[in-house]
UniProtKB/TrEMBL annotation:
<keyword id="KW-0677">Repeat</keyword>
<dbReference type="InterPro" id="IPR004497">
    <property type="entry name" value="NDHI"/>
</dbReference>
<protein>
    <recommendedName>
        <fullName>NADH-quinone oxidoreductase subunit I</fullName>
        <ecNumber>7.1.1.-</ecNumber>
    </recommendedName>
</protein>
<keyword id="KW-0150">Chloroplast</keyword>
<keyword id="KW-1003">Cell membrane</keyword>
<comment type="subunit">
    <text>NDH-1 is composed of 14 different subunits. Subunits NuoA, H, J, K, L, M, N constitute the membrane sector of the complex.</text>
</comment>
<keyword id="KW-0408">Iron</keyword>
<keyword id="KW-0472">Membrane</keyword>
<dbReference type="InterPro" id="IPR017896">
    <property type="entry name" value="4Fe4S_Fe-S-bd"/>
</dbReference>
<feature type="binding site">
    <location>
        <position position="64"/>
    </location>
    <ligand>
        <name>[4Fe-4S] cluster 1</name>
    </ligand>
</feature>
<feature type="binding site">
    <location>
        <position position="107"/>
    </location>
    <ligand>
        <name>[4Fe-4S] cluster 2</name>
    </ligand>
</feature>
<feature type="binding site">
    <location>
        <position position="67"/>
    </location>
    <ligand>
        <name>[4Fe-4S] cluster 1</name>
    </ligand>
</feature>
<dbReference type="GO" id="GO:0048038">
    <property type="term" value="F:quinone binding"/>
</dbReference>
<feature type="binding site">
    <location>
        <position position="110"/>
    </location>
    <ligand>
        <name>[4Fe-4S] cluster 2</name>
    </ligand>
</feature>
<dbReference type="Pfam" id="PF12838">
    <property type="entry name" value="Fer4_7"/>
</dbReference>
<dbReference type="GO" id="GO:0005886">
    <property type="term" value="C:plasma membrane"/>
</dbReference>
<feature type="binding site">
    <location>
        <position position="104"/>
    </location>
    <ligand>
        <name>[4Fe-4S] cluster 2</name>
    </ligand>
</feature>
């Protein structure tokens, strides 16, 4: 008799616990019903990169003095600066310049230290390709002006996550309980 009562007691406790967990699950669902979606319909919609976004590097050939500072400050000595010394003008003459974005880590050092500001970070992030060797950009590819997401009329620009309504990035108030439940 005693064991049956004890069994019923344990069963009741487990049922209450299960109901509590189901309730927590519903609370998470309800919490999300108040939020705006933070996914976007890429490539028809694109998020606007932040002000200091480090995307594809833009290079201005005419401003480069072939000093090779960008090579020395690069953690992997990546930029390839090909130049010749012109005796008539007693100056280095830049022949070609390239950066391989298949290897670049977009740290921005080259941009930061270039003495003539001929390098700059753009907001371009769509660099995917089937052949990684195509990511080795010469001065012509590097000199192409970036396409701004805001100015592209073919897509819808979505402002960054930081501009979403307040509270959208905050965690659930009961997330700790849910984590405990999962573990
Ligand atoms: S640091 Fe600037 S100026 Fe010097 S080689 Fe590199 S890109 Fe050219
Ligand atoms: S961004 Fe960094 S890794 Fe890429 S070329 Fe410049 S210094 Fe090198």
């Amino acid at each position: 008799m005693f064991s049956m009562v004890r069994g019923l007691q344990i069963y009741g406790q487990q049922a209450i616990q299960a109901a509590k967990y189901i309730g927590q699950g519903f609370m998470v669902t309800l919490d999300h019903m108040n939020r705006l979606p933070i996914t976007i319909q890429y490539p028809y919609e694109k998020s606007v990169p932040s002000e200091r976004f480090r995307g594809r590097i833009h290079f201005e050939f005419d401003k480069c003095i072939a000093c090779e500072v960008c090579v020395r400050v690069c953690p992997i000595n990546l930029p390839v600066v090909d130049w010749e010394f012109e005796r008539n003008i007693r100056k280095k003459q830049l022949k070609s310049y390239s950066i391989d974005f298949g290897v670049c880590i977009f740290c921005g050092n080259c941009v930061e230290y270039c003495p003539t500001n001929c390098l700059s970070m753009t907001e371009e992030y769509e660099l995917s390709t089937y052949d990684r060797h195509e990511l080795n950009h010469d001065q012509i590819a590097l000199g192409r002006l970036p396409i701004s997401v805001i100015e592209d009329s073919t897509i819808r620009a979505i402002s960054g996550l930081t501009q979403l309504p307040k509270g959208i990035l905050e965690g659930h108030s009961d997330s700790k309980n849910v984590t405990n439940f999962l573990h």
